[in-house]
Design goal:
Chain lengths: 376, 290
């Protein structure tokens, strides 16, 4: 689960990590009410779940109240990579003397939380990682001991020279780790962490992601979740035991198992088609799941043909066939549907489907080719 | 021969009285696996389908001499179940449970290392040595005894590939589903080493997925350490981007995770990558000179 920058800032502030003063606004009127008529330089930042907002014009400086209002009105409603900007963060701009990067992540290779830090902060951190990986300091944290004071201090000494800054950064690293662990985070970045001209160490921009598997024990984090229309479809599907991701192609596919579902999409592409979605109906052959899945697929107006690819292991193909027959009695459609059943009880399943007149095939590649042919 | 499990393996089932635990305990027994006990706190002394139930893993191990445990307990309690098995001295733990929080798994890791426990999963279908022992939720009927080792991050895709191998007369020594979670137990390298050391295994099939850099690490291992041929398949070559974990995700793996990078890494290691699963048996046969 992702959150916006302003929400990450709120979490930082709650854990005592210094951030510039600011607040989130949903409308121009809110900006007008928030910003006093003074000479404070402010920054207006679009709050969207998309990268590259600066380049897209979603971040602007404001030198006055009028400026803030004007820029907020430009940014609110703007489209950034398909996301409409519905809120802006209005924050005091700070005079930056130097930028740094610090981040925490669950690292698959060391199977631990890894702290990363670099004196080369700012937006181009990925470039730094590619070109000069030696400029990124990495530390694998023992989960039992946690991030120890001396470890945080050692990292801080590699980034800063002034002992005042070292102390402030040590404190920030400790707090960031505490926040990370207590919220079941999978990513927490401060980029940039800065020294201001006034000598303060501060988090200017932040990003946090959370473990979906742990949301059951993270009510406060779950309450921060905001979903787009497409995401809502995915969440609805999830609640029905389906895993669904909408794509832009014309071949709808329904598959059991995530790996097989990805391989099915690849197969469609390999034979010159474009998948309309990723849809994993999971391990059970409950007819209701098949009905729900068909409703989702046929509800997508881009879909010109449907490919059903089931490999029966624990899932029995005759159960899937039964679900499909019930589903097709309920949903009347002219969209061609190709069914591939293989594995446990495939013969029985295919026999049952004969009466429906649906084209049935026994291999994945045949199914993909047939579906593409019928979509034209 | 085989890796990890064989006809001597004695298995206990943690969460045996749950719906999935009970169902699959029966399936595993029917396949011929020695299911010697189950664990369900508060139900010690009872039996389910002739299998004795114990309150703790320690009691189960002492009474049955079990050396493997399979975990079906719900996600919030799965990490604790792994630790219980590890501290009871169980050598091989297979966690089937899906949805285990990542921090829970991270906290498990130093302890299983200290205790010398081998962990497979979580969020995995289990493993099988055909004709000898099945642990987990794999459909036993599609496997065939033979000389091919197989490892995979996926479930049904594994069955698809195994079915193709079996139909082409290519039996298997052991097939292992390592699971799809970011923080998991045994990885490709650990299993590749085991297959390399297993005299009965002549070739290995590796089924990967996009995301992370486990496949790149495996390719590096194959290049440096493996003498036996390996054939690979990567699922998700056309999957949409957006599953990436911000800047830090790209940094930790130096920008890897895409199918192209994985295919290139395998190519550099002399590992052919099948374009679609049905090409795998042919690639194996040509590697073995069949």
């Amino acid at each position: 689960m992702k959150i916006h920058e302003y929400q990450a800032r709120d979490l930082f502030r709650a854990y005592g990590i210094p951030v510039p003063d600011g607040a989130v606004c949903h409308t121009v009127d809110e900006v007008r009410a928030l910003v006093p008529d003074d000479n404070q330089l402010r920054v207006i930042k679009a709050q969207v779940h998309a990268g590259g907002r600066g380049k897209a014009g979603g971040v602007k400086l404001a030198r006055s109240k009028a400026d803030a209002i004007e820029n907020a009105s430009k940014i609110l409603g703007m489209d950034i990579k398909g996301y409409t900007v519905e809120k802006v963060l209005v924050a005091n701009a700070v005079d930056i003397s130097k930028e740094f990067y610090v981040g925490l992540i669950n690292d698959r290779n060391t199977k631990s939380v890894t702290l990363m830090a670099s004196a080369e902060g700012g937006v181009e951190i990925e470039e730094v990682a590619k070109v000069s990986p030696e400029k990124i300091i990495k530390l694998s944290i023992n989960p039992v001991a946690g991030l120890m004071d001396w470890q945080a201090r050692e990292i801080a000494f590699k980034l800063f020279t002034d002992i005042k800054h070292v102390r402030a950064a040590t404190d920030i690293l400790k707090k960031l780790y505490k926040l990370y662990i207590e919220t079941d985070s999978t990513l927490a970045e401060i980029n940039p962490l800065v020294i201001t001209e006034q000598g303060e160490v501060m988090a200017i921009d932040g990003k946090m992601n959370f473990d979906d598997n742990a949301l059951f024990r993270q009510d406060d984090i779950l309450a921060m979740r905001e979903v787009t229309e497409d995401e809502q479809k995915e969440i609805d599907a999830n609640e029905k035991g389906l895993s669904y991701i909408k794509l832009d192609g014309s071949i709808g596919c329904m598959v059991n198992g995530a790996g097989l579902a990805m391989a099915t999409m690849d197969m469609i592409k390999l034979y010159g088609g474009e998948p309309a979605n990723f849809l994993d109906i999971g391990g059970s052959s409950n007819p209701q799941k098949v009905i729900d899945a068909m409703n989702i697929l046929l509800g997508d107006t881009n879909v010109k043909a449907v490919m059903i690819n089931i490999f029966g292991g624990i899932t029995r193909c005759d159960d899937v066939a039964r679900g499909l027959i019930i589903a097709l009695e309920q949903i009347k459609t002219d969209i061609p549907i190709v069914v591939r059943l293989s594995g446990t009880n495939a013969k029985e399943g295919l026999e049952m489907l004969k009466a429906t007149g649906l084209p049935t095939v026994s291999t994945m590649s045949e199914a993909a080719q047939k579906a593409i042919e019928l979509s034209k | 021969m085989s890796i990890l499990i064989n006809k001597e393996t004695k298995l206990i089932v943690q969460g045996i009285t749950g719906r999935d635990g009970a169902f699959h305990a029966g399936k595993m027994k029917a396949y011929g696996t020695h299911v010697v006990g189950g664990v369900s706190p508060g139900k010690g002394g009872q039996h389910i389908d002739g299998v004795p139930i114990f309150n703790t893993v320690k009691e189960a191990r002492e009474a049955t001499d079990a050396n493997a445990s399979v975990i079906f307990v719900p996600a919030p309690f799965a990490a604790d179940a792994i630790l219980e098995a590890s501290f009871a001295g169980i050598e091989l733990v297979i966690a089937i449970t899906e949805g285990v929080p990542q921090q829970d798994m991270i906290r498990v890791m130093p302890f299983i290392k200290q205790n010398g426990t081998k962990l497979i999963g979580p969020n995995c279908p289990g493993l099988i040595t055909p004709g000898e022992c099945l642990i987990g939720i794999l459909p036993g009927n599609i496997f065939l005894q033979g000389n091919i080792g197989l490892m995979s991050r996926s479930g049904t895709l594994t069955y698809e590939v195994v079915n193709l191998l079996t139909e082409n007369g290519l039996g298997q020594t052991t097939c292992v589903g390592i699971g799809g979670d970011p923080v998991a137990g045994l990885y490709y390298q650990d299993l590749l080493q085991m297959f390399e050391d297993d005299p009965k295994t002549d070739a290995v099939v590796l089924i990967g997925e996009i995301g992370g850099d486990a496949e790149e690490q495996a390719a590096k291992f194959i290049k440096e350490k493996m003498t036996k041929p390996v054939v690979a398949f990567i699922a998700g070559q056309t999957a949409p981007p957006g599953k990436r974990m911000g800047h830090a995700g790209a940094i930790i793996s130096s920008g890897s995770g895409t199918a192209e990078e994985k295919i290139k890494a395998f190519g550099d290691a002399g590992v052919p990558v099948a374009k679609e699963p049905s090409q795998i048996p042919g690639l194996i046969k040509s590697k073995l000179g069949l």
